[in-house]
Specification:
CATH topology of the largest domain: Tumour Suppressor Smad4
Number of helices: 6
CATH architecture of the largest domain: Sandwich
Number of strands: 18
Strand content: 35-45%
CATH class of the largest domain: Mainly Beta
Oligomer: single chain
Structural class: alpha+beta
Length: about 280
Protein backbone atom coordinates (compact mmCIF):
# COMPACT_ATOMS: atom_id res chain seq x y z
CA UNK A 1 0.00 0.00 0.00
CA UNK A 2 1.40 3.38 -1.00
CA UNK A 3 1.83 6.12 1.58
CA UNK A 4 -0.97 8.42 0.48
CA UNK A 5 -1.23 10.76 3.48
CA UNK A 6 2.02 12.52 4.32
CA UNK A 7 2.79 14.98 7.09
CA UNK A 8 5.80 17.31 6.95
CA UNK A 9 7.04 18.57 10.33
CA UNK A 10 9.66 21.21 11.07
CA UNK A 11 10.43 24.39 12.96
CA UNK A 12 9.32 27.64 11.35
CA UNK A 13 12.12 29.40 13.26
CA UNK A 14 14.67 27.96 10.82
CA UNK A 15 14.59 29.57 7.38
CA UNK A 16 16.26 26.63 5.63
CA UNK A 17 13.61 24.29 7.08
CA UNK A 18 10.76 26.54 5.94
CA UNK A 19 12.24 26.67 2.44
CA UNK A 20 12.71 22.88 2.29
CA UNK A 21 9.18 22.26 3.61
CA UNK A 22 7.62 24.40 0.88
CA UNK A 23 9.72 22.70 -1.78
CA UNK A 24 8.84 19.20 -0.54
CA UNK A 25 5.16 19.96 -0.08
CA UNK A 26 4.90 21.08 -3.72
CA UNK A 27 6.93 18.06 -4.91
CA UNK A 28 4.90 15.55 -2.86
CA UNK A 29 1.57 17.09 -3.83
CA UNK A 30 2.09 15.57 -7.29
CA UNK A 31 2.86 12.13 -5.83
CA UNK A 32 0.47 11.65 -2.90
CA UNK A 33 -3.23 12.11 -2.22
CA UNK A 34 -2.73 14.44 0.71
CA UNK A 35 0.27 16.33 2.09
CA UNK A 36 0.36 19.00 4.76
CA UNK A 37 2.97 20.85 6.79
CA UNK A 38 2.76 21.35 10.54
CA UNK A 39 5.19 23.50 12.50
CA UNK A 40 6.41 22.22 15.85
CA UNK A 41 5.51 25.56 17.37
CA UNK A 42 1.86 25.07 16.36
CA UNK A 43 1.17 21.40 17.08
CA UNK A 44 -2.54 20.57 16.92
CA UNK A 45 -4.18 18.90 19.92
CA UNK A 46 -5.32 16.05 17.65
CA UNK A 47 -3.53 14.56 14.68
CA UNK A 48 -5.42 13.15 11.73
CA UNK A 49 -4.43 9.71 10.52
CA UNK A 50 -1.28 9.85 8.37
CA UNK A 51 0.82 7.18 6.69
CA UNK A 52 4.17 8.93 7.04
CA UNK A 53 5.72 11.80 8.97
CA UNK A 54 8.68 13.51 7.33
CA UNK A 55 10.63 15.49 9.92
CA UNK A 56 12.96 18.24 8.72
CA UNK A 57 15.82 19.14 11.06
CA UNK A 58 18.45 17.58 13.28
CA UNK A 59 18.04 14.74 15.76
CA UNK A 60 16.70 17.16 18.37
CA UNK A 61 13.82 18.10 16.08
CA UNK A 62 13.08 14.44 15.45
CA UNK A 63 13.04 13.71 19.19
CA UNK A 64 10.63 16.59 19.72
CA UNK A 65 8.30 15.38 16.98
CA UNK A 66 8.70 11.72 17.92
CA UNK A 67 7.58 12.30 21.51
CA UNK A 68 4.48 13.90 20.07
CA UNK A 69 3.90 11.20 17.41
CA UNK A 70 4.93 8.12 19.41
CA UNK A 71 1.47 7.14 20.66
CA UNK A 72 0.25 6.81 17.06
CA UNK A 73 3.29 4.75 16.00
CA UNK A 74 3.49 6.81 12.80
CA UNK A 75 6.54 5.89 10.66
CA UNK A 76 9.06 8.72 10.83
CA UNK A 77 11.49 9.67 8.08
CA UNK A 78 14.15 12.13 9.16
CA UNK A 79 15.65 14.63 6.73
CA UNK A 80 18.89 15.88 8.23
CA UNK A 81 19.30 19.64 8.29
CA UNK A 82 21.30 19.66 11.51
CA UNK A 83 24.72 18.30 12.47
CA UNK A 84 25.10 14.64 13.48
CA UNK A 85 22.01 13.04 12.00
CA UNK A 86 21.84 9.63 13.69
CA UNK A 87 18.05 9.52 13.36
CA UNK A 88 17.77 11.86 10.38
CA UNK A 89 19.28 9.59 7.74
CA UNK A 90 18.02 11.25 4.54
CA UNK A 91 18.85 14.43 2.67
CA UNK A 92 16.17 16.14 0.57
CA UNK A 93 17.79 14.65 -2.54
CA UNK A 94 17.87 11.18 -0.94
CA UNK A 95 14.16 11.41 -0.18
CA UNK A 96 13.37 12.24 -3.79
CA UNK A 97 15.70 9.55 -5.12
CA UNK A 98 14.22 6.81 -2.95
CA UNK A 99 10.63 8.07 -2.88
CA UNK A 100 9.27 5.24 -5.01
CA UNK A 101 10.62 2.67 -2.54
CA UNK A 102 9.60 4.77 0.46
CA UNK A 103 6.05 5.17 -0.83
CA UNK A 104 5.78 1.45 -1.61
CA UNK A 105 7.06 0.66 1.91
CA UNK A 106 10.11 -1.14 0.54
CA UNK A 107 12.62 0.76 2.68
CA UNK A 108 13.66 -0.93 5.91
CA UNK A 109 11.85 0.21 9.05
CA UNK A 110 13.49 -0.14 12.47
CA UNK A 111 11.18 -0.24 15.47
CA UNK A 112 12.91 1.85 18.14
CA UNK A 113 11.84 1.11 21.70
CA UNK A 114 10.85 4.00 23.94
CA UNK A 115 10.72 4.71 27.67
CA UNK A 116 7.99 5.97 29.96
CA UNK A 117 8.84 8.06 33.03
CA UNK A 118 6.53 8.58 35.99
CA UNK A 119 6.97 10.42 39.28
CA UNK A 120 5.05 8.57 41.96
CA UNK A 121 2.21 10.59 43.45
CA UNK A 122 2.33 13.30 40.78
CA UNK A 123 0.59 13.89 37.49
CA UNK A 124 3.77 13.32 35.55
CA UNK A 125 3.81 10.56 32.94
CA UNK A 126 5.96 11.28 29.90
CA UNK A 127 7.52 9.33 26.99
CA UNK A 128 11.21 9.44 26.13
CA UNK A 129 12.91 8.30 22.94
CA UNK A 130 16.56 8.78 23.92
CA UNK A 131 16.90 8.99 27.68
CA UNK A 132 15.69 9.92 31.12
CA UNK A 133 18.38 11.76 33.08
CA UNK A 134 18.68 12.74 36.73
CA UNK A 135 21.23 15.54 37.03
CA UNK A 136 22.54 17.11 40.26
CA UNK A 137 21.92 20.77 39.43
CA UNK A 138 22.68 23.77 41.62
CA UNK A 139 24.43 24.11 44.00
CA UNK A 140 26.23 21.20 42.30
CA UNK A 141 26.91 19.08 45.33
CA UNK A 142 27.07 15.30 45.07
CA UNK A 143 23.65 13.64 45.26
CA UNK A 144 22.56 10.21 46.50
CA UNK A 145 20.04 8.00 44.73
CA UNK A 146 18.63 4.58 45.68
CA UNK A 147 18.01 2.33 42.67
CA UNK A 148 15.69 -0.69 42.49
CA UNK A 149 14.85 -3.11 39.69
CA UNK A 150 11.38 -4.30 40.55
CA UNK A 151 11.56 -5.36 44.18
CA UNK A 152 15.34 -5.82 44.17
CA UNK A 153 17.63 -3.09 45.46
CA UNK A 154 20.49 -2.71 43.01
CA UNK A 155 22.63 0.12 44.35
CA UNK A 156 22.91 3.34 46.26
CA UNK A 157 24.51 5.77 43.85
CA UNK A 158 26.51 8.81 45.00
CA UNK A 159 27.66 11.16 42.26
CA UNK A 160 26.39 13.72 39.75
CA UNK A 161 23.38 11.75 38.59
CA UNK A 162 22.17 8.88 36.44
CA UNK A 163 21.35 8.29 32.75
CA UNK A 164 18.64 5.79 31.83
CA UNK A 165 18.72 5.33 28.08
CA UNK A 166 17.26 3.33 25.22
CA UNK A 167 19.50 1.73 22.59
CA UNK A 168 18.64 4.73 20.40
CA UNK A 169 19.92 7.04 23.14
CA UNK A 170 23.03 4.95 23.77
CA UNK A 171 25.00 7.15 21.33
CA UNK A 172 23.90 10.36 23.08
CA UNK A 173 24.70 11.44 26.68
CA UNK A 174 25.07 7.78 27.66
CA UNK A 175 28.03 7.35 25.34
CA UNK A 176 29.65 10.62 26.45
CA UNK A 177 29.40 9.47 30.08
CA UNK A 178 31.19 6.19 29.31
CA UNK A 179 28.13 4.01 28.76
CA UNK A 180 27.95 1.24 26.14
CA UNK A 181 26.95 1.71 22.51
CA UNK A 182 24.06 -0.67 21.86
CA UNK A 183 22.53 -1.84 18.59
CA UNK A 184 19.22 0.03 18.08
CA UNK A 185 17.31 -3.25 17.71
CA UNK A 186 18.39 -4.70 21.06
CA UNK A 187 15.56 -4.69 23.59
CA UNK A 188 17.47 -3.32 26.56
CA UNK A 189 17.82 -0.35 28.89
CA UNK A 190 21.15 1.21 29.85
CA UNK A 191 21.85 2.58 33.34
CA UNK A 192 24.94 4.80 33.36
CA UNK A 193 26.06 6.72 36.46
CA UNK A 194 27.30 10.28 35.93
CA UNK A 195 30.67 10.79 37.67
CA UNK A 196 30.02 8.24 40.46
CA UNK A 197 32.00 8.80 43.65
CA UNK A 198 33.15 5.18 43.67
CA UNK A 199 35.52 2.90 41.80
CA UNK A 200 32.88 0.15 41.78
CA UNK A 201 29.96 1.69 39.91
CA UNK A 202 29.80 0.60 36.29
CA UNK A 203 27.16 1.02 33.60
CA UNK A 204 24.49 -1.68 33.47
CA UNK A 205 22.58 -3.13 30.53
CA UNK A 206 19.29 -4.68 31.64
CA UNK A 207 16.36 -6.40 29.97
CA UNK A 208 13.68 -3.95 28.87
CA UNK A 209 11.06 -5.87 30.86
CA UNK A 210 12.41 -4.41 34.12
CA UNK A 211 10.87 -1.37 35.79
CA UNK A 212 13.49 0.91 37.34
CA UNK A 213 12.70 2.86 40.51
CA UNK A 214 14.96 5.72 41.61
CA UNK A 215 14.43 7.35 45.00
CA UNK A 216 16.02 10.70 45.88
CA UNK A 217 17.88 10.17 49.17
CA UNK A 218 19.94 13.38 49.14
CA UNK A 219 19.67 15.92 46.32
CA UNK A 220 20.23 19.60 45.56
CA UNK A 221 17.64 22.34 45.13
CA UNK A 222 18.32 22.26 41.40
CA UNK A 223 18.31 18.48 40.95
CA UNK A 224 16.27 17.81 37.83
CA UNK A 225 14.77 14.98 35.79
CA UNK A 226 15.25 15.62 32.05
CA UNK A 227 13.63 13.66 29.21
CA UNK A 228 15.28 13.81 25.78
CA UNK A 229 16.77 17.18 26.71
CA UNK A 230 13.32 18.74 26.20
CA UNK A 231 11.05 18.04 29.19
CA UNK A 232 12.19 18.65 32.74
CA UNK A 233 10.84 18.36 36.29
CA UNK A 234 12.54 19.03 39.63
CA UNK A 235 13.40 15.99 41.76
CA UNK A 236 13.16 16.45 45.53
CA UNK A 237 14.16 14.35 48.55
CA UNK A 238 11.84 11.40 49.05
CA UNK A 239 10.40 11.46 45.54
CA UNK A 240 10.40 8.29 43.47
CA UNK A 241 10.97 8.17 39.72
CA UNK A 242 9.75 5.09 37.89
CA UNK A 243 11.05 4.31 34.40
CA UNK A 244 9.78 1.46 32.26
CA UNK A 245 9.62 0.45 28.64
CA UNK A 246 7.11 2.57 26.74
CA UNK A 247 3.86 1.13 25.44
CA UNK A 248 4.64 2.25 21.88
CA UNK A 249 7.63 1.82 19.60
CA UNK A 250 8.88 4.51 17.23
CA UNK A 251 9.13 3.24 13.62
CA UNK A 252 12.09 4.90 11.88
CA UNK A 253 12.51 4.56 8.10
CA UNK A 254 16.17 3.92 7.30
CA UNK A 255 18.06 5.11 4.26
CA UNK A 256 19.29 2.47 1.78
CA UNK A 257 22.45 4.56 1.46
CA UNK A 258 23.40 4.36 5.16
CA UNK A 259 23.80 1.90 8.00
CA UNK A 260 24.06 2.40 11.76
CA UNK A 261 27.68 1.32 12.20
CA UNK A 262 28.84 3.24 9.15
CA UNK A 263 27.22 6.35 10.62
CA UNK A 264 29.10 5.82 13.89
CA UNK A 265 32.36 5.50 12.02
CA UNK A 266 31.75 8.52 9.82
CA UNK A 267 30.19 10.89 12.37
CA UNK A 268 32.09 9.98 15.55
CA UNK A 269 35.21 8.32 14.10
CA UNK A 270 34.32 5.15 16.01
CA UNK A 271 36.80 2.27 15.84
CA UNK A 272 39.25 4.27 13.76
CA UNK A 273 42.72 2.82 13.75
CA UNK A 274 45.94 4.78 14.30
CA UNK A 275 47.24 7.01 11.54
CA UNK A 276 50.81 6.21 10.53
CA UNK A 277 52.97 8.83 8.93
Amino acid sequence: MAMRRVLIIGSKKKSQVVKAAKELEAWLAERTENVQTIWLEEKPSELKKVDLAIVLGGDGTILNAARWLSAGEVPVLGVNMGKLGFLAEFSVNDLKEYWENISAQKCRVVERMTLEAEIAGQEFLQPAINDVIITAGEPFRMIELAMHLGESEVASLAGDGLIISTPTGSTAYNMSAGGPIVDPQVQAIMLTPICPHSLNHRPLVIDSRHEISITAKRVNEGTTIILDGQVSREFAVGQELKVRRGKHNLPIITSPARDHWGTLSKKLHWAKGPEYS
